[in-house]
Amino acid sequence: MFEFTQKYPVAIVGTGPGDPDLLTVKAARLIQEAELIVYDCPPAGLVLEHFNLSAKVVYIDRRANAAEQTSSPGETLLNLIQENYMNGKKVVRLKVGDPMLFGGELNDYAALSKMNIPFEVVAGISAGTAAACSYALSISAKGESDAVTHLIVNEVGENLPLLRDAARWLQHGTTLVLYMANPHLEKIFQCFAEEGIPEDMPVVAVGKAGWPDEFYISSNMKHLKYGLPVSEGQSPIVYFLGKFVSLGNLPKARLEPISLRDTNIG
């Protein structure tokens, strides 16, 4: 006798920057109801510490399999998702931040579509959004900064034309939000200076937004051109640049900014 297996769309859930209080209600519900939770980016797993889960949780270290770091998720992760989907399990795939903002090199959506596995994407809060709200950063205001542009700059060489365009946006009041920029900040700011951006352009940097050891600094291009002297464990850092960028609020846990000389932030 034929036995029907109820199947559920795979939920690709944005976990935000790490603070479980920033999860959407839908994300929290899907995590709580899940029977399998998979993730491959350690910060995405931070939120799980605050749930009483019955689900099987699997972390796949993609760094251990460099050959799998292509334009689609690793084979191990996909096989795990497919097997549990076919067996009628409720599967949640965690993605740090917002799944649709800089989704990284792992394109889950295309891979699942090729496998004819239905899915839904649940929005998450990006590190930039979390940081802007936490510090009440004035990144947009009618008549001043009418545009906010998010840029990923983990590589500078091929992005110089884009950065030169971004410099012109700065001149018109646009606020830039830079991700993965810390190692390349000197080149980025040099490019901006060549396009006429003054060295006193306001800059606010927020590290590990939403984490217990979150930190910030409010300065300008001149003093931050070499980036922040932080270790790998103190990333990610989001930079906000713009004529009107300024701090409007300080979280109670961090009333003093870090020092540029402070190499042991936290």
Automatic annotation (TrEMBL):
One of its GO terms (biological process) is methylation. GO terms for molecular function: uroporphyrin-III C-methyltransferase activity. Residues 10-224 form the Tetrapyrrole methylase domain. Keywords: Methyltransferase, Porphyrin biosynthesis, S-adenosyl-L-methionine, Transferase. Its EC number is 2.1.1.107. It is an enzyme of class 2 (transferase). PROSITE patterns: SUMT_1. Signal peptide: none annotated. InterPro entries: 4pyrrol_Mease, 4pyrrol_Methylase_sf, 4pyrrole_Mease_sub1, 4pyrrole_Mease_sub2, Siro_Cobalamin_biosynth, Uropor_MeTrfase_CS. Belongs to the precorrin methyltransferase family. SUPFAM superfamilies: Tetrapyrrole methylase. This is uroporphyrinogen-III C-methyltransferase. Pfam families: TP_methylase.
